[in-house]
Amino acid sequence: MLIQLQDISKNYQIGTVSVTALKSIHMTIERNEYVAIMGPSGSGKSTLMNILGCLDTPSGGSYLLNNTNVSDMNDDQLAEIRNREIGFVFQTFNLLPRANALHNVELPLIYNGTPASKRRSQAMEALEKVGLGDRVHHKPSELSGGQRQRVAIARALVNNPSIILADEPTGNLDSKTGDEIMEIFETLHEAGNTIILVTHEEYIAEHSDRIVRLRDGLIERDEATNGHV
Amino acid sequence: MKLLIYVWEGVKIAYEALRSYKLRSVLTTLGIVIGVTTVITIVALIQGLNKAFTSQISALGSDILYIDKFPWMMEGNTFWVYRNRKNITLRDAERVAELSTLAEAVAPTLMTRRPIKYQENQVEGAIIVGTTELYLVTSNVVPEFGRFLTANDVSHHRPVVVLGSEVAEKLFPHSDPLGKRVTIGGYKFRVIGIQEKRGSFFGNNLDTYAYLPIGAFQARFGAQFRSVEIEIKVQSPELLDEAELELTGIMRRIRGLSGNAENDFAINKQDMLQDTYQRLTGTLWAVAIGVGAISLLVGGIGIMNILLVSVTERTREIGIRKAIGAQRSDILLQFLIESMMICALGVFIGIALAVALAKGIAAATPLPASITWWVAFLGLGFVVTIGLFFGIYPAGKAARLNPIEALRYE
Ligand SMILES: Nc1ncnc2c1ncn2[C@@H]1O[C@H](COP(=O)(O)OP(=O)(O)OP(=O)(O)O)[C@@H](O)[C@H]1O
Ligand SMILES: [Mg+2]
Q1: Same domain for B185 and B97?
Q2: What's the pLDDT at A229?
Q3: Per-domain residue ranges for chain A?
Q4: B114 falls within a domain
Q5: Is A89 in a helix, a strand, or coil?
Q6: A with B: how many residue pairs have Cβ under 8 Å apart?
Q7: In 3D, which of B41, B11, B21 has the Cα closest to residue B295?
Q8: For chain A, which terminal residue's Cβ has fewer other Cβ atoms within 10 angstroms, N or C?
Q9: How many CA atoms lie less than 13 Å away from B225 in the CB half-sphere?
Q10: 3-state class of A28 per DSSP?
Q11: Under a CB-based contact definition with an 8 Å cutoff, are residues A30 and A205 in contact?
Q12: Is residue B72 part of a domain?
């Protein structure tokens, strides 16, 4: 079992008001699964992704990642998990604007102390996997939206993480470009990666082999996709 | 190895950040620049002065005492008090020589300014010193040609003169001065010796002096209204304080001072100049430290301020870095490096200005100013202390940012 969530909850305190984003989430995800998370706006999808990605800690419950309890780790331990185990792809790309594609992809390797030459070859390899081998010296401002998202995917891949998390990765892209990005995820899945992605679009969720539907901080439905078993 | 990668990465990031805000970065360093320039220039000045002072003061032996009517260093307008004192006489000097057990040599001196002439050549305002053969011992002056005054010259009040090197050069550009007769203040003197070059002592050119037997001096230029300075070489420098006590006693006896009367003479020594000098440089140090500290404080706060702005502007960047695995210490290090690099820029500009200023001062004024390798250490010290001290708060703030909130920052 790669991921095991037990009774995960998350509250946000805004002044005196407490907002419950997640009530009680139970979920297990196996290695090499391809899971789509869906649900209406405000249902807690991003909150769940942030917890899965160790960017945030739950208010209650336990989260086992690779049989390690990460729900009560401190900041620096979580940073290390993020670096080693998780590749995050954001809706808004989140690339460093002043750094070129290669340097953006190298970034996770810098923070685990990989020597420069190895860093470079690994980053090149990741960029080639997403079909950007010829754009490595371009800055984000010199790339199209789809190309930027590919850089972000390359950055998520570069460390060979256990999970790739993508929160609406095609949300800022037109449908044709979105399809190209989905193809990349498909390929990564076939190559053995575990992928969890959030989307609003049914046709995008169709790429996965399991759809988890959230509503008001609870799992409403959790089922295999048609055509997948 | 890991740390090296982080530091190098930090340097690159900081360099990028400084480069993209060139004007802002340079303006930020202004306080540091002023502070560093002030401190280094003043320290350079003090160092130069020290060097000059040490070489000057060595003209006064450390084992010499000077009995004078006036102390060398007078406070306020006490001059009028000292002026009413009885003059010190040649007779006093003779008694001191008789009675002192710790003196190795006692030389009375009188001084005046007179022109010296030889044929059509003339030296205006040469300093004429009347003294004895023992002046050779007390003042450490050595003739380069001919001889100094002898006991015989002195006891017979012979009209002979030993010329300073510059006087000799000006009066006798093409001929040998020895044996020639020069005219000093209207009187003829035969040249018996020429002193070796001595340089200058606090602006006095010691090579424009001329030395006569003291009796001959008094006979020509008057004895009545002149107070003698008695130069005493003590047997060894360690005996200086003891000799000062002995001489005070002797002088009081000679001058017939009763038990509680104040001394009506002064015993001067090299130390007094040293004390005054140290007070002067003490003031300079205080100025350097004061101005330097204030500007560096202002500069440091400027750096802190600009870093806080930078942390805010780059909140998203920090969020991205943390999201992909940067630890608190990585972010902390990154901003501390940036802080130190801004500081280094200021220190570098400051040192460059100080070097230019010191060169200018040395060229335009007689004040020496010397900058050497120590500025590198001083500069490095500034960079590390100011950079760390004022960088730690903004860097800590950046390091503690929550990754999600930072990513969401617009
Ligand atoms: N930092 C926060 N502070 C306070 N409330 C928050 C915070 N983040 C999320 N919430 C609240 O938690 C609930 C779930 O938010 P979340 O972002 O997870 O929704 P989502 O399913 O991702 O929605 P969308 O589809 O619009 O992205 C919402 O009601 C939201 O207002
Ligand atoms: Mg969301």
Answers
A1: yes
A2: 47
A3: 3-228
A4: yes
A5: strand
A6: 62
A7: B41
A8: C
A9: 4
A10: strand
A11: no
A12: no
How far, in Å, is the centroid of ligand 1 from the Cα of B54? 77
Measure in Å the smallest separation between the Cα of B319 and chain A Cα atoms.
9
- The domain boundary residue, chosen from B264, B289, B318: B264
The answer to whether A80 contacts chain B (CB < 8 Å) is yes
Same domain? B373 vs B280: yes
Q: Give the H/E segment covering residue A31.
A: none
**Residue B348 CB: number of other CB atoms within 10 A?**
16
Instruction: Please answer whether residues B281 and B84 qualify as being in contact, where contact means their C-beta atoms are separated by less than 8 angstroms.
Output: no
The pLDDT assigned to B159 comes to 95
Please work out, in degrees rounded to the nearest 5, the angle formed at the alpha carbon of residue A63 by the alpha carbons of A58 and A68. 130
User: Which of A23, A43, A215 most suits a substitution to test ligand 1, by most atoms within 8 Å of the C-beta?
Assistant: A43
Q: Judge if the beta carbon of residue A92 lies within 6 A of ligand 1.
A: no
Indicate whether B162 belongs to any domain: yes
Q: Could you tell me the residue range of the domain that residue B223 belongs to?
A: 86-264
Residue tagged 């998520």 (tokens): A156
- Out of B232, B264, B296, a domain closes at B264
A45 lines ligand 1 (CB under 6 A): yes
- Residue A4 CA to its chain's centroid (Å): 16
- For B42-62, what is the mean pLDDT? 78
Adjacent-strand bridge partners of A37 = A198, A212
Closest-approach residue (CA) in chain A for B400? A75
A3-228: in CATH 3.40.50.300: yes
Helices (H) and strands (E) in chain A, counts: 7, 10
In A, minimum Cα distance to B328 occurs at A76
Complex ipTM value: 0.94
Q: Is residue A198 within 8 Å of A40, Cβ to Cβ?
A: no
Q: What average pLDDT does this structure show over A178-195? A: 92
B128 and B240 housed in the same domain: yes
Residue A226 DSSP label: T
Question: Is B371 contained in some domain?
Answer: yes
The per-residue pLDDT of chain B, averaged, comes to: 88
Residues B145 and B181 in one domain: yes
The DSSP string of B81-119 is HHHTSPPP-HHHHHHHHHH-SSEEEEEEEEEEEEEEEET
Given this model, what pLDDT does residue A228 score? 52
**How far apart, in whole angstroms, are the C-alpha atoms of residue B98 and residue B106?**
9
Does B210 lie in the same domain as B144?
yes
Copy the structure tokens of residue B384.
């590390």
**More confident call, B375 vs B163:** B163
| Residues in a beta bridge with B232 | B65, B106
B35 contacts: CB under 8 Å, gap ≥ 6: B291, B292, B293, B294, B295, B296, B298, B299, B350, B382
A94: left (phi over 0), alpha (psi -120 to 50) or beta: left
Beta bridge partners of residue B269, listed in sequence order: B65
Mark whether B189 and B225 lie in a shared domain.
yes
> What is the pTM (predicted TM-score) of this model?
0.75
